[in-house]
Amino acid sequence: MIENILNKRISYLRYLAVLGGILFHNSVYADSKNTFIEDTSAEIKLRNFYMSRDYQKNRVRDTGEAWTQSFIADFKSGYTPGKIGVGLDFLALYSFKIRGEDNEIGTQLLPVKENNIQEDDFGRLAIAVKGKVSNTELKVGEWSPVLPILRSDDGRSLPQTFEGWQLTSSEFKNLKVHLGQFYKNSPRDSERMKDMYLTSRSSATSDQFNFIGLDYSFNEKNDQISIWYSQLKDIYQQNYFQYTKSIPIDSMNLKWNVGYLYGTEHGDAKAGQLDNQALYSTLSLANKYQKVSFSAQQMMGKDEFLRVNGTSGFTLANDSFTSSYDNPKESSWQIRHDFNFGKFNLPDLNLMNRYIYGNGIENSQTKDGREHGFETEISYTIKTGWLKSLSIKARHSEIRRNWGNTNSFNDNRLILSYTIPVFN
C-alpha cells in the first residue's frame, strides 16, 4: 500500500526540483531574516475514530460499524526571503482498520472494495508548492481547500484533498480575491485521485472545477459581503452570495448571516438539465459561556443542492453530522444551543445540542418527504500535563425519515485526537 502512495506522487518531484533551486538561491543570497524557517510549523495528529450506525425501520441492513487509527502529518513552511517568497506544504496521511466487519459498511471511515469488503488501510501524500509576492499567494499541488463553494470534508478518518492551483490576493484594503482551478479529487474514504462528479450522479465526470470569489469586509470587519462563482465544467455552474453581520452588545454578540446559491447545468450538461436554489439564514446570540442559534433553510428547484462529490455541505445553515437537509424543495429549520462549562471552572468542556426539522421533500422516492434529527456532542480538551492537546469528542445523532430503506438510523461516534507539535 505504501508503494502505491509513492507511485501516485512521482509527479510532485517536478515541483520539488523547481522549489529546491529557488530555495537554495534565496537562502544563499538573501540578506533579510530567514522567514522560511522561522514561520514553519509541523505537527502530527493522531486520530482515533469509532463510528457505528444502527438502522431503524424498513432496513436492508442492521448496522454499520468501523474503528480506525489515523496519522496526519501536517507541514507548513514559511516563505523564503526576497521579493518572491517560495514555500512548501505537505500532508502525509495514513489510516488503518482496528475493527470493521466486511458486511458492516456505510461509515465511510475506510475505502470499500467492489465486493463490499472494507480495506485494511489506506493513505495519501499531498504536496503543494506556494509562492508569494506582496500580499498575493499562489498555491499549486494537492491540499484540503476550505471555500464556500468547495469545502473539503474532514469528518472521518482522513481529510479530503484536491489537486490544482489557487491564487489568493489581499492587495486591496478589506478585499480578498480568490481564483483557481482543481483537476482531481480524493474523497475522505479514498486513496486515489479521480475526476470529479456531481454528488449522486457519478456517471458524468469532469476534470475541471473553476472558481472566482470576492470577500469584502467593512464596519471594522463586523460586516462581510461574499460573492463567488464556480463551475464543474460541462456539469454544473453555481453563484454564491452571502452577507454576515456581527453586532457587539455589552458582553454579548449578536450575529446574523443570510446566503443564497443558484445553480444550473453548464456546457455540455453531462448530468442533464439542473435547477437548484438554496436560501438560508442563521441568527445567533452568544455570551462568554453559551450561544443560542436559530437557522432556516429553503431548497428551490427540481434538484438537490449542487456540490462536488465528497465535499462538505457546511456552507448551508442546516448542515449537520448526518444530513444537510438539502433535498429538492426541502424546507428546514434548526434550533441549537452551545454551552461552555467555564462558568463551573471547566473551560475546556463543551456541550452542543440541536434539533433540525425538514419537510416538503420531492424526490424519486417521495412527493411529501419529511426528516428530523437530534444531535448532541460533548467535547473536552486537555490543556496541561503530558496529555496536553488531547481532545475527546463523543457524538450521538438520531435521524428519522418517512422514505427510503436505510434513511432512519442512530449514529454514535467517539473521536480521540492527540496533536504532537514537531516544531512551531
UniProtKB/TrEMBL annotation:
GO CC, any one term: membrane
Pfam families, alphabetized: OprD
Statement: the UniProt record of this protein carries the keyword Ribosomal protein: no
Gene Ontology molecular-function annotations: porin activity
Statement: the UniProt record of this protein carries the keyword Lipid metabolism: no
UniProt KW keywords: Signal, Transport
The family this protein is said to belong to: Belongs to the outer membrane porin (Opr) (TC 1.B.25) family.
Protein name: Outer membrane porin, OprD family
